[in-house]
């Protein structure tokens, strides 16, 4: 059994938790999330703490217990605090704008790159080079941030491109430094 699955999830104030027919509904000030839980995993709510246990007869429950505990924990954190990813555009002429439900990126290509913002996410652009993506679903926030970054990942020679705020890009020496 997973060591982390033995620890209970403590519900913050203002978060409602319901378990019914293999589904877990978590509702809080930021929004609502519903996760499905397979058979063999039992969830109990006692004194604002959520406990996970498994059915010993089920072969699928043992390897999946820690995963579903983490998914429910992410749902609880998402509806209470929310998740956020920040991206920075580095390069001459690189900029971002919001056009309704689309994120318009100018990345030095001959054409503008437009991405549809998924439902449930909020995107904010500061100073046209800083993109902040916030939402309740950790997976959706991370996936959209990775999609934006994949349009122009940072290159190793000058460091131009889209990078996460806390990302470190190691720079390589160019041709001139190699010949000396």
Give a description of the structure.
The protein has 180 residues and is of the alpha+beta class. It contains three helices and 13 strands, in the order ββββββαββββββαβα. The protein has helices spanning 61-80, 138-150, 175-179; strands at residues 9-10, 16-20, 23-27, 32-36, 41-46, 49-54, 83-90, 95-99, 102-106, 113-116, 121-126, 130-135, 161-164. The chain has a four-stranded antiparallel sheet with strand order 11-12-7-13, with helices on one face. A three-stranded antiparallel sheet has the order 1-6-5. Strands 2-3-4 form a three-stranded antiparallel sheet, covered by helices on one side. A hairpin with a 4-residue loop joins strand 3 (23-27) and strand 4. It is elongated, with a radius of gyration of 21 Å. The model has no long low-confidence stretch (mean pLDDT 87).
């Amino acid at each position: 059994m997973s060591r982390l699955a033995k620890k209970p999830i403590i519900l913050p104030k203002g978060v409602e938790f319901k378990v019914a027919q293999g589904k877990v509904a978590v509702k809080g000030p930021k929004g609502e999330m519903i996760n499905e839980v397979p058979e063999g995993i039992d969830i109990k709510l006692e004194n604002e703490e959520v406990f996970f246990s498994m059915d010993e007869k089920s072969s699928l429950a043992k390897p999946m217990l820690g995963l579903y505990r983490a998914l429910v924990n992410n749902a609880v954190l998402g509806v209470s605090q929310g998740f956020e990813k920040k991206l920075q555009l580095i390069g001459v002429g690189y900029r971002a704008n919001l056009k309704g439900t689309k994120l318009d990126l100018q990345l030095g290509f001959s054409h503008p790159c437009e991405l549809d913002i998924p439902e449930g996410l909020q995107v904010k652009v500061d100073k046209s080079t800083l993109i902040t993506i916030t939402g309740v679903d950790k997976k959706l926030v991370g996936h959209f941030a990775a999609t934006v970054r994949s349009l122009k990942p940072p290159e190793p020679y000058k460091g131009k491109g889209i990078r996460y705020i806390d990302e470190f890009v190691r720079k390589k020496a160019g041709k001139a430094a190699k010949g000396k």
